[in-house]
UniProtKB/TrEMBL annotation:
SUPFAM superfamilies: P-loop containing nucleoside triphosphate hydrolases. Pfam families: MMR_HSR1, YqeH-like_C. Residues 64-228 form the CP-type G domain. InterPro entries: G_CP_dom, GTP-bd, GTP-bd_ribosome_bgen_YqeH, Mito_lipid_metab_GTPase, NOA1/YqeH-like_C, P-loop_NTPase. It comes from Leuconostoc fallax. NCBIfam families: GTPase_YqeH. This is CP-type G domain-containing protein. GO terms for molecular function: GTP binding.
Amino acid sequence: LAEGLQCIGCGARMQIDEPEHAGYLPLSALRKQIDNDELLCQRCFRLRHYNEIQPVELTDDDFARLLHQISATRALVVYVIDVFDVTGSIISGLPRFVGQNNPILVVANKVDLLPKSLNKQRLKQWLQGVLKEQGIQAVDTFLTSAKKPQNLDELLEKIDELRLGEDVYVVGVTNVGKSTLINRIIKSRTGIQELITTSRFPGTTLDRIEIPLDDGAQLVDTPGIVKRDQMAHALSEKDLKFALPNHEIKPKTYQLNAEQTIFIGGLARFDFVNGERAAVTAYFENNLMLHRTKLANADAFYDKHAGNLLQPIPAQGNTLVMHEFRTSEKSDLVFAGLGWITVPAGMHIRGWAPAGVNVLIRKAMI
Ligand code: GDP
């Protein structure tokens, strides 16, 4: 399929086999781009659509070393992600780091934030598809909420079943709720508190927390990887509390005409540039006020109301950066970590967010 195609960004020959080399694009993305008539390799795609900021996957060589140590052993990798911020949860190259042969169990946390009516089976399939595009093949996907874990025993059974007597390493980026989950696991095992030992990963300055399992193996909690392109880094502590969801989000649906704009507080903006009149559905914290206005007036509206009617605003001031997309299927326009807007196929849209915050398009979750 990639034969004879070139990236319009860097001119490299497109290829689907070697992620480390020029011109790489996963097959599914290549298919999509051919449909959209816009051929960009993964690197150029990110440059163009992600505001030139390559997400920093690992802030620390230590972390690479740590993950590499996992690859040198036989273990089950429990990879915790946040269902509300799947992109922000991605550790790219995870399978390479932890070893191709070590199974990965994906624990999708914070399901309490999604509408209860959601079909859980479909959500799992959707998640596996998204992860697969990132090269992550999970042996299983488990949905949970570390805040109110009704199915913690089930999770522990699943872990026991998959680890085949080996150690378990729990990995994840920061803010996905890994610590909350680990704490629940510790509490659920009475008397285990005193047994926790902290030690260092050999050759690094990173701590490991070891929780003994019944057969002498260990469940090892690893430090969270800091990802910079999360909304969490673009907001003050107080605004974060206000803007990020704590409870089940109530989707809001709008009938929009072309050339209309929706502001998401003062933090993000959605432009419907062109397309048939359509229903779009917004998934954000219920606190955040959404304001609809005309696209032609949107800049002036923001200048006038940012910080009062439109609240909160980014910690770094009022500039929002624009990202442009065309949808070829029912898609989510994602403001990484803040929420998303589901739009039908055939729309020309723009998403605006604070600099450094990922804005991207994905196959619709719901
Ligand atoms: P870590 O950095 O991955 O260890 O994440 P933490 O355990 O510190 O959690 C990050 C934030 O997410 C905290 O504000 C938690 O209260 C919140 N959190 C963790 N688990 C859940 C969950 O299942 N649902 C919801 N709604 N919030 C959660």
